[in-house]
Amino acid sequence: MRRLTAFEQVSLDGFFVDAKGDMSWAHKQDPEWNEFAAGNAKGGGTLLFGRVTYEMMASFWPTEAARQRMPEVAEGMNTLPKVVFSRTLRETPWKNTRLVKGDMVAEVRKMKSEPGRGMVILGSGSVVSQLTEAALIDELQIVVNPIVLGRGRTLFETVKKSVPLKRVDTRVFGNGNVVLSYRAS
After folding, report:
1. Helices and strands (H, E) in the chain, number of each type
2. What is the mean pLDDT of residues 81-106?
């Protein structure tokens, strides 16, 4: 069975986007963090997105600016297979992207049962919330950023039941980020 991981950035006060829907506060550029991001991009597998995150990523990673700033991450983002869940998108011009307009939970359940490498959700708060509620996420990797936003959206705002987790790893970075990895207990 394929594993599904969610890799998410949050503020110290628990928001994944600020009150305006922005998450530029989570994009730090330093050698240690960039090396970590490049290693993740080489991990392979399939990337899963909701429409908003897909459109944001598709507007940046195929650009020359992305290739110059973070060449290894850009290479991974542009070559890995991608799935975007959206009822409103009509086309997905970003290379290696498949559009799913139907039942996201059923599609992810099907994808998990197929052979292949793991899958990773990047951003896409509503996708994470829905797939958490459906108990389909195997691991949560939460990057806690050293910033207080005051207002915004929480990652699990639509989850209606408790989801007990077990911490399996922690990594602290010089830029103040802390990556906490959890699995369902």
Report:
1. 6, 10
2. 96
CA angle, residues 148, 153, 157, in degrees to nearest 5: 125
Distance in angstroms (rounded) separating the CA atoms of residues 64 and 55 = 17
From residue 52, give the alpha-carbon distance in Å to each of 15, 108, 119, 155, 176. Answer: 16, 18, 19, 14, 27
Query: What are the extents of the domains in the chain?
Result: 4-184
- Fold type of domain 4-184: Dihydrofolate Reductase, subunit A (3.40.430)
Residue 14 near residue 149, CB atoms below 8 Å = no
What's this model's pTM, rounded to 2 decimal places? 0.92
pLDDT for 29 beyond 80: no
Helix (H, G, I), strand (E, B) or coil at 142: strand
| DSSP letter (8 states) at residue 2 | -
